[in-house]
Structure formats: C-alpha cells, structure tokens
Design brief:
The protein is of the alpha/beta class. The protein has twelve helices and 19 strands. The chain folds into three domains: 3-132, Rossmann fold, CATH 3.40.50; 145-377, tm_1862 like domain (pyruvate-formate lyase- activating enzyme, Alpha-Beta Horseshoe), CATH 3.80.30.20; 383-442, Nucleic acid-binding proteins (OB fold (Dihydrolipoamide Acetyltransferase, E2P), Beta Barrel), CATH 2.40.50.140. Helix content is 32%, strand content 20%. Helix 11 (314-327) packs parallel to helix 12. The relative contact order is 0.08. Residues 5-11 and 127-132 have low confidence and may be disordered. Bound molecules: iron/sulfur cluster. Iron/sulfur cluster binds at residues 154, 156-158, 161, 163-164, 198-199, 279.
C-alpha cells in the first residue's frame, strides 16, 4: 500500500518518501529515513512540500510493478525530482523507458547509494546531528511494535518467485547486531517485535561453513532464545518447516516467544509443491503440525497460499481445501497465481484460466472464513492477554497473541477502555466473535 510518510522535524532540505511493498521494504524505508534525518533532512508529508521524493518500489508481482510505475509517475507529476529505489530498481531500463525524468535508480537495500543520490540532488546543508535521531531510528510503524529484519535475500528457487533475483542470496545479520537493535527498540517503547526475513528458519545457514564466524550468528533457535529474554512479545514470520522449527516450540510453551508461526505453505498437494520447487519436505507436514499443537495447544498457525498455479487441477485444489480444513489453519491469506515475467513458472504449460483462478480463490476464502469463525467461536469465554493498537471514541482496538498487526484479526473492547493507550497490555474475557474478529471486556 502506498504511504507518503509523516513530517519529521529538522532543517531545510525536505525529502518525501513513498514506501510500497512488504514489511521488508518498509524496514528499508525506515533505514533510509533514519539516515536522512541523522543528516538533518526534513521528511516531508506531501509531494508539493518536498524538494525531492524517493519512491521505494516493489517488483514482486505484475500488479505491484504497475503500482510502483504509477507511483513514480505520480511523484514525477506532482514533484518532479524523483529517486527510485527498491526491488523494481533492478529493472532500470523499464523505469527509464516509462519515466525518463527519474533522476536516479538504485536497487533493493542499496541504502548508501540512495543517500548518495539524495546528496547529489539536495546537498546536505548541516553537519550531521546524529544525536537528534531516536535510539530506535525512524520508524514507520506505530511506536509500540516494530519489524526486526534478521537477514536479506534467499537461497531457494521457488518457481513463482523472483525475490532471489531481486535481493540476492541469503545474508544473515550478526546476532549481536540484531539483539542490539532489539534492545534499542525496547528502550524506545516498542512492546512487540515482528521478526522478518525471506526465510526466517534459515537464519545463520549462510555462515555455517565459516567456522570462525558461525558463533557470531548461530541459528534461529539461538536467536529466538536471546530475543525471548527481552520483555517483549516476539512474533516469528516467514518460518519454513525445517526440522529446527521443533526446537522453537518449547520457547513458545515457556512463553519466551509468542505461540505463533507464520509459515507460507503456498500449497499442500505434493505435485504442486514439487512444481513450485518449495523448500522443506512437506511429506510429514501434517504430522509435524499435529505434534507442534500437542506440544503447544494454543499455537496459532498463519499461512499464505497460492491458487491457480500452472498445472493445478480441480483435484489438487480440492485436496488443498481439505487440507486447510483438516489442519485447521487458523489464519489464512490467499493469492491468485500471477504469471510474472522473469519467474521460472512464466513459461510453464497448463496455465490456469483467470475465471477458474477467481472461482478457486472465492471458494478458498469461503472455507478459510468458515475455519476462522469456528476457531474464534471456541475462544468465547476464554481469557486473553491483548495489546492495544488504537483507542478511538467507541472502542479500544487490540490484538491477542494470535493476531499479527495488519494481517490478522482484532479484538475490540467497547466498555471501560478510556484509560487504555496504544501499547498497553490488558487481560480480557472474550464475549463475542465474527469471522475474523473478537469482542471482549477488561477483567
Ligand atoms: S523461499 Fe521461495 S518464495 Fe520465499 S523468497 Fe525464497 S524463493 Fe521466494
């Protein structure tokens, strides 16, 4: 979703930033803004007020590419001085052809390069004043939660995905750097960390062969254990079901990290998973989920799926529907397969017609809604610890441990909520439910 970010006080040069795409791109935007603010730039909330605009693009799907190109065009029309960065920045020719007036184009996570380009367009007017930057850096999420990126890139080659081409192979951040960032965020008032990467369970794999370095990285279990020592909610996203995941479950039962796993399964049928070239062995995945739930009964599993991948027959689709029902996947996102140029699946035979993709998507979401409704009904009468996201005149909008911000459901408190503030925790008894949301009162 497109966001033109808020004004941040500072000196005279004013830079606007449009951030598109996923949470990983949002973290890149935060890094760019932190650096600019440290150098004395003002971050402007409008095209008209800015002296130049950075557009942090997404290039994952055709729809995202189109949105990125439109945003560049809009920035050119409304401001004129535009620097492009992010995933679509890899396609310089496309951008220059559609928007010849763009001043500079840099690729994903090229923070230094973006800053250099800003310097060329708007030379810094002040000495850097790093002390004005909050310890947590500049954040684009609300103050009480933050994304924590633990690695860049990915070593897999899923046929539908161009991320390894855009962002390169897996590069893990040093464990000490991640922990230091988490501590700074905690000190700045962050109460919940959303751990992200392209492949969270693979953290540290890229350093395994370097015996002198691997100690400084460890694996996802060691990292999660360290993060679990901080007094925050720790939520893991983009986890693949490698054997190491089993080690994470005890951290959940010990309440060191949230009992929540975001695992992008994408499909359940072995033929389609093979065609997709998905990582991790899915043969035993049903047994694994059953075991994890036995170990941690309140575990919430969120996942995303693709319907209409080339070669997906009605039988494959039906088996997927049955599987999400059998496994009671709690939170579900669904995408209709998009045939992205550059992806290995682009030339695959047996592309599924759009009308069938739409039908399958509707059926899938209906089933997902049914599962969610049944599971939320079971929560009525239970006591939940919630975090407050927002308070307005009619309710406090909160989330339980089972809900990640932006993508999952909410819990509304509609009475005696006046004293609550964003970032507060409170205990609630659940009184009502809908397909995706809950209602409760403070106890
Ligand atoms: S695991 Fe697959 S889908 Fe995820 S980033 Fe890597 S290649 Fe893409």
């Amino acid at each position: 979703m497109e966001k033109m970010h808020k004004n941040i006080q500072g000196a005279e040069n004013k830079v606007g930033l449009v951030s598109l795409g996923c949470p990983k791109a949002l973290v890149d935007s935060e890094r760019i803004l932190t650096r600019l603010k440290a150098e004395g730039y003002i971050i402007s909330p409008s095209y008209e007020d800015a002296d130049a605009v950075i557009v942090n693009t997404c290039g994952f799907l055709d729809s995202a590419r189109e949105e990125s190109l439109n945003s560049i065009q809009e920035a050119i029309t409304k401001n004129g001085k535009v620097i492009v960065t992010g995933c679509l920045g890899k396609e310089k020719d496309l951008i220059s052809k559609t928007n010849p007036n763009v001043l500079a184009i840099t690729g994903p996570h090229q923070y230094e390069q973006v800053i250099k380009e800003v310097h060329k367009v708007l030379p810094p007017k002040n000495e850097p004043f790093l002390n004005l930057v909050p310890n947590s850096g500049v954040k684009l999420t609300p103050r009480h939660y933050s994304y924590l990126k633990i690695s860049e890139g990915c070593n897999h080659k899923c046929k539908f995905c161009i991320i390894p081409d855009l962002r390169g192979p897996l590069v893990s951040r040093k464990k000490s750097h991640i922990i230091n960032e988490a501590v700074r965020l905690a000190e700045a008032g962050v109460k919940e960390l959303l751990v992200i990467s392209q492949d969270t369970s693979a953290y540290g794999f890229d350093k395994l062969k370097f015996t002198n370095e691997k100690e400084q990285y460890g694996d996802i279990f060691e990292l999660a254990k360290e993060l679990g020592k901080l007094d925050m909610w720790i939520r893991l996203h983009y986890v693949y079901p490698y054997p190491s995941v089993e080690k994470l479950i005890p951290l959940m039962t010990e309440r060191k990290i949230l009992p929540y796993l975001d695992i992008p399964f994408q499909h359940s049928h072995p033929d389609i998973l093979k065609k997709m070239a998905r990582p991790a062995n899915h043969k035993n995945i049903s047994e694994k989920i059953t075991l994890w739930r036995k170990m941690c009964p309140d575990l919430t599993i969120r996942s995303s799926f693709i319907v209409g991948f080339p070669g997906e027959t009605e039988e494959h689709f039906q088996s997927l529907l049955n599987w999400i029902e059998e496994m009671q996947i709690d939170r579900i996102g669904c995408f209709k397969y998009e045939n992205v140029k550059g992806a290995k699946s682009y030339e695959m035979p047996d592309q599924v017609p759009e009308a069938i993709k739409n039908q399958r998507y509707d059926k899938f979401m209906k089933k997902a809604q049914e599962i969610s409704t049944i599971n939320l009904e079971k929560k009525v009468g239970s006591i939940q610890e919630v975090i407050v996201d927002e308070v307005n005149s009619v309710s406090a909008i909160c989330r339980t441990k089972a809900d990640a911000p932006e993508i999952d459901g909410t819990l509304f408190i509609e009475s005696n909520f006046d004293r609550l503030q964003p970032g507060d925790f409170c205990r609630v008894i659940v009184e009502d439910y809908s397909e995706y949301d809950l209602w409760g009162k403070i106890i």
